[in-house]
Design goal:
This protein is mainly alpha-helical. It has one domain. It is 87% helix and 0% strand. It has two helices and no strands. Helix 1 runs antiparallel to helix 2. The longest helix is centred in the middle third of the chain and has 103 residues. The protein is rod-shaped and about 150 Å long. It starts with 6 loop residues before the first helix and ends with a helix.
Length: 143
């Protein structure tokens, strides 16, 4: 994989080739006129133009492939994030269920032991009343 150039590097190389071909083409005379129809120089210019067109096509293809690879990589990353967030959703649901059962257990504990505590308080109240009445009765008897 390290020996294989990236699509962006390939596209840059194609662009450099295309620029060299276009510079060479600008310095050459036009392709065909009635005076120089069969010259080999004209054939070289034609070959250069064909090579330039091929280079442009290859450059466009390399750029498109590079963009597609980048988009596919981004899409793969989005899919991984989606999978990670769906795992997070499961965690959130599990946490919610756990909290629900925790609150329900706490409520049951309060109800189960709350009556006992309330009964103990009521019994203590009755004992205090009885003690106060006894003290009041002793004071009345002492007079």
């Amino acid at each position: 994989m390290a020996d294989t150039p990236s699509p962006i590097a390939e596209a840059e190389e194609m662009a450099r080739r295309l620029a060299r071909i276009e510079q060479n083409r600008a310095s050459e005379p036009p392709l065909a006129t009635s005076e120089n129809e069969g010259d080999s120089k004209d054939m070289d210019a034609t070959d250069a133009k064909i090579a330039a067109a091929e280079a442009r096509a290859e450059t466009s293809l390399a750029k498109a492939m590079g963009e597609m690879r980048a988009e596919f990589a981004a899409l793969r990353g989005d899919i991984r994030e989606l999978k990670a967030s769906s795992a997070s959703k499961g965690t959130v649901v599990l946490t919610g269920v756990t909290v629900f059962f925790g609150i329900a257990g706490l409520l049951l504990a309060v109800l189960a032991y709350g009556g006992d505590r309330f009964g103990a308080g009521a019994a203590q109240r009755d004992m205090v009343r009885a003690a106060v009445q006894e003290v009041m009765a002793q004071r009345k008897a002492a007079r």
